[in-house]
Amino acid sequence: RKEYVDLYVDYVFNKSVQKPFEDFMQGFLRGCPARNWKMFFPEELQVLLQGCKTFDWHLLEKNVVYRHYKKLDQTIRNFWTVFHKLPEEKKKMFLAFLSGSDRISGYELECFRFCIADPQVENPDESFPYASTCSLILFLPR
């Protein structure tokens, strides 16, 4: 029985996916040669390719640039007060709304900057917040 289980596990996890994995690896290495990846430890490579899963949200707040706002404007203070009270899952949903991804690639949190801008609409009470994901701008009506 043990031999059967060992052979079955080997088939499911290795032999049955060998050809598709080799095809994937060949294509991947064509665009990303292996010599470039050898300098990374596996954990570093995972973060580089998949992005960070945990964040220092206060550092994110510190890196924000404001357009037509000042850091001490009531709208901005209210935004950050509410944001920091959100559960982790909702904060990541905000990040996805802002950037199109709930992760920040690589080790870029220290460098990740986005902008909160006043869309300067005539009646802010009739406008919703929206984001420009390409430019990393959150348009936040007053």
TrEMBL record:
- EC number, UniProt record: 2.3.2.26
* Record's protein name: HECT-type E3 ubiquitin transferase
| Family annotation (Gene3D superfamilies) | Hect, E3 ligase catalytic domain, Hect, E3 ligase catalytic domains
Q: Which UniProt keywords apply?
A: Ligase, Transferase, Ubl conjugation pathway
Q: What is the enzyme's class at the highest EC level?
A: transferase
**Naturally occurring in which organism (per UniProt):** Hippolais icterina (icterine warbler)
Which reaction equation describes what this protein catalyses? S-ubiquitinyl-[E2 ubiquitin-conjugating enzyme]-L-cysteine + [acceptor protein]-L-lysine = [E2 ubiquitin-conjugating enzyme]-L-cysteine + N(6)-ubiquitinyl-[acceptor protein]-L-lysine
In its UniProt record, a GO molecular function of this protein is: ligase activity
Q: Which residues form the active site?
A: C134
Q: Which GO terms describe its biological process?
A: protein polyubiquitination
Every copy of the HECT domain together lies at: 1-142
